Every structure is written in C-alpha cells, then in structure tokens.
TrEMBL record:
Cofactor note: Binds 1 zinc or iron ion per subunit.
Lineage: Bacteria, Pseudomonadati, Bacteroidota, Bacteroidia, Bacteroidales
Annotated Gene Ontology cellular component terms: cytoplasm
Superkingdom of the source species: Bacteria
Binding residues for Fe(3+): H76, H78, H244, D318
Species per Swiss-Prot/TrEMBL record: Marseilla massiliensis
Cellular localisation: Cytoplasm
Chain positions recorded as 4-imidazolone-5-propanoate binding sites: R85, Y148, H181, E247, S323
Tagged with keyword Iron: yes
The protein, known as: Imidazolonepropionase
Length: 408
C-alpha cells in the first residue's frame, strides 16, 4: 500500500495490551507505505525511503492520501439472533415497563422464542448480513455469543451457526457459550443452572463449539454463586471466562471472574470504584460497551477513571437486538470520546489492541506490527486521526483488507 498520509497504530513493541497512560500513545507514521505478505504484515516505512530494490509487490494499492488503521476488534457481540425488536424500542419510548415490554414481545426470552422457530440456515443467513455489514465498516476480529437458545438444542444450534460463520468469513471469529443469559422458558432457576452445568457445558465442550464461557451475572439474572459454578464447570473444557457484570448492579460478578482468570469483564455501567483494586494486577480486561449505555439511556462505564488509575480499558459494540442493535465500532469509538471522555488515541487503542487482548488475540491482531495478521482498512482522506471520532456519522472506510486480501 502506497501513499498513506498516516499509518496509524503501529509498533506496540510486543505489548499485548496498553494500560493507563500508555493508552494515549498511538504510534503513527506519516507519508508511509505498508507491505503485506502471506496474509501478515511484512514491513512498513516512510515513502521517502521505500526500498525499491528487492521489493516487488504482486498487487499495489494506492491509498490516495488516506490513512491506514488496524482493523477494529469487537470483543463482545450477540450478532447471531433472530429477527429484531424495534417494537420494544418504541414501547420504551412510550414509557412501558419491563414487564409490559416482555408481554408485548420484547426481552431476551422473546428473542429466544423467535430463534427457536428458525432453521440453522435461516439463522446463519440473518447473522451473516450483520457480519458482512461490520466487516465493511472495518471490523476484522469479533467475538460472538450464544445465549438466545436457552435450551440445549437451541444453544448448540447458535454455536454451530457461529462456527459456520467463522469458517466462511475472512474476519477472525471467536465463540462464547452464554447459556446463562436468562432462565430458559419453562425452567426454574436452580433447574436451569443445573441444565447449563450438567448438560449444556459437556455437550458444548465435547463438540468444541466454544472458546469462552459467559454468564449474565447481575440482579434478577444469575448470582455470583451460579456464576462461579458455571465458570468452574466450563474450565476443564478449556473455556475461559468472559463475563457480563455490573450492568444493572454491582453484585460481585467481577470478583468471581477475576479470581477465575477471566479474559474480560464486560459492561461495568454500575461498577464501583473499590472494584478497580480487584482488577489491578490481574490479566482481566475491563470492557466498556458505550453503545449500550447510549441506546438504553444508562450510565457509562467509568472508563476515564479506570485509565487515570492505571488500568487498561477495551471497548466493544455489544451488537444485539435488545440493548444496542449496532455493531458500528467507529461510532463506539466516538461514544468512548464523547460520553466517556477518552482521547481519540485512547479510544482507538481500546478498540484495537486492548479489544484484541480481551479475546486473547493481541499477539496476532490489534495493531500494525510486522508478523501480525494483515487486517487493516484504508480511509478516505482525512485531516487527522482525531477526525475519526469527531465526525461521528461520516463513513471513513474506503477499502478493507483481511488477511492481506481485499474484501468487497
Ligand atoms: O449484553 N445484558 C445482557 N444481555 C444483552 C442484552 C440482551 C437483549 O436484550 O437481548 C446485553 O446488553
Ligand atoms: Fe452483551
């Protein structure tokens, strides 16, 4: 790639994540070129000293004065779902209660009812439309959760769809088993947790359908005790925890996750400041989902304070039918700046290197480093990197490359 005005997000120097003040350091190179070989970044440098000898590219891409960024990494999505819930959106605007909304076809259980009626092929087709959309918007790695099945057969159906997606797209897809997203229809609480532990996890494990395990540990959903039991049952199958905590209330899920080496704890809208200390020194990535706070008119995770206290932060879209029907990572970066007061450089690092780390993928993704997978996008010409979050509805992506190949 030639004639790049600014090559963004280069050289994290082998760091797998950026913490605290490191997050405002976004390495850039002006007037640059970039070489990908065999699907990976092979070299980059300044246009003035491009080594013409011995450097022959099969395909030369003219960036035409645009910038190049590492692809967004989205470490928390629920893009495999059936239909949509715009009725619930309107009901909420009208001021209906949660119970009334559930009666009228809103809520996780209603998404589960709808998913139950869909074939695997139809579910795959619906999800693929969303995955294609986000790839075109610059997402190169994404995590996808189950959690709208809520019985063994439908949870497995969702995970098979995620596997099929991962096998058919050039983006890197990782899968998370979220059987404990809500109590499945017809089950009692204890009965459902038993089902997750005794039946779902062994089946998911035997078929190797999930990289990670998740629990919606929150008021009215699953307790820290349920969460500990589920994480402990999934551990022998190699599923590492990435869990939903502190969205509605802080009830101890974060502590349970950190104690069990969770890769990430996500949401954190109602995180308490004394929980910062629990994260300190751990490998767990706190992951904020500002799109959810925006869509639900809820508090934002205290990302600014976490960074100021030296912690790392990642951001993700949470793309799902109920709390944020959008996987637009550029908008997530804008919200991180506008609503959580992150600097553009911090927000971009949160959506790339730290987001990759929240999926355990930052040795191979999340920055433009020689040897990493060549997932990147070329932007329209822009005055500066800060323009990206500033122009919060302007599309910026002009061309997308995943594994070194252009996608159309
Ligand atoms: O991450 N918080 C739990 N689950 C989803 C919302 C699910 C839904 O409403 O369908 C979330 O926001
Ligand atoms: Fe979620």
């Amino acid at each position: 790639v030639e004639n790049i005005t600014t090559l963004v997000g280069t050289g994290t120097g082998g760091k797998l994540r950026l913490c605290g003040s490191e997050m405002s350091g976004l390495n850039t190179l002006d007037n640059a070129w970039l070489l990908a070989d065999d699907g990976r970044f092979a070299a980059f440098g300044g246009m003035d000293d491009m080594p013409l000898e011995g450097l022959r590219a099969d395909v030369v891409v003219d960036a035409r004065g645009g910038m190049v960024l590492p692809s967004w990494c989205d470490p928390h999505t629920h893009v495999v779902y059936a239909g949509s819930r715009e009725g619930e959106f309107v009901d909420k605007i009208r001021g209906l209660s949660y119970a009334e909304i559930a009666r009228r076809g809103g809520g996780i259980l209603n998404s589960a009812d709808l998913l139950h009626t869909l074939s695997e092929d139809e579910l795959y087709a619906q999800a693929m439309r969303r995955v294609r959309e986000v790839m075109k918007k610059g997402t190169g790695c994404l995590e996808i959760k189950s959690g709208y099945g809520l019985n063994t057969a439908d949870e497995l159906k969702m995970l098979r769809v995620i596997r099929r997606i991962s096998e058919s797209v050039p983006a890197r897809v990782v899968s998370t088993f979220l059987g404990a997203h809500a109590i499945g229809r017809g089950y009692g609480h204890a009965e459902y947790v038993d089902l997750v532990v005794n039946e779902m996890i062994p089946e998911v494990g035997r078929e190797r359908l999930a990289d990670f395990v998740d629990v919606f540990c929150d008021e009215g959903f699953f307790t820290p005790e349920d969460t500990a039991r589920i994480l402990d049952a999934a551990a022998p199958w190699g599923m590492r925890p990435k869990i939903h905590v502190d969205e509605l209330a802080s009830i101890g899920g974060l502590q349970v996750g950190v104690e069990r080496g969770a890769l990430s704890v996500d949401h954190l809208e109602n995180m308490r400041e004394d929980e910062f200390g629990v994260l300190r020194g751990s490998i767990t990535m706190p992951t904020a989902l500002p799109g959810t706070s925006f869509f639900l008119n809820m508090p934002y995770a205290p990302a600014r304070k976490m960074i100021d206290s030296g912690l790392p932060v990642a951001v993700a879209s949470d793309y799902n039918p109920g709390s944020t029907p959008s996987g637009d990572m550029k908008f997530v970066v804008s919200l991180a700046c506008i609503k959580m007061r992150l600097l553009p450089s911090e927000a971009i690092n949160a959506a790339t290197i730290n987001a990759a780390c929240a999926m355990g993928l930052s040795a191979d993704y999340g920055s433009i480093d020689v040897g990493k997978v060549a997932n990147f996008f070329v932007t329209e010409p822009m005055p500066s990197v800060d323009f990206i979050p500033y122009a919060y509805t302007t599309p910026i992506v002009s061309r997308v490359f995943l594994g070194g190949e252009e996608i159309v």
